[in-house]
Design goal:
Strands 2-1-5-4-3-8-9 form a seven-stranded mixed beta sheet. Strands 6-7 form a two-stranded antiparallel sheet. A hairpin with a 7-residue loop joins strand 1 and strand 2. By secondary structure, the chain is of the alpha+beta class.
Amino acid sequence: MSVALHQAVPEFSAAAISSTLTGLDGELSLSSLRGKNLVLYFYPKDNTPGCTTESQDFRDAYAQFSQANTEIIGISRDSLKSHQNFKTQHNLPFILISDAQEELCSLFDVIKLKNMYGKEVRGIERSTFLLDTQGILRHLWRGVKVPGHVEEVLHAVQALAKA
């Protein structure tokens, strides 16, 4: 099953590193975030060049997202330990979810065959999803190119906040 635009995202819970820099580990559920818009950005791997830049861009715009009643959540297949190191090293103020079992990746259909050094591998296609305060999918971006992406998402969030 895959989430469709303008449809409610099914309830989920996942292992997460919290939005505080203290590294509080735990289960995060979609319902616990009701009342806020959510930006869910799926990225291939912690501490790789594109993923680091994208995460830093979201970090740098975090205050603007917060002003628009929006929480940012980064999702990859990396472990909680890897996420904690990534979060600390880059001072990321938002939640990171570990989706090692690919449950959220499957729900949002972001696992694709990719070509890496001439070899086909399964990996996360860089993608971002914007959910409104009721958990309805309002915007999606697939095959994301990092430059300018966060600004585009922020504009969509701000437009949603005005609607």
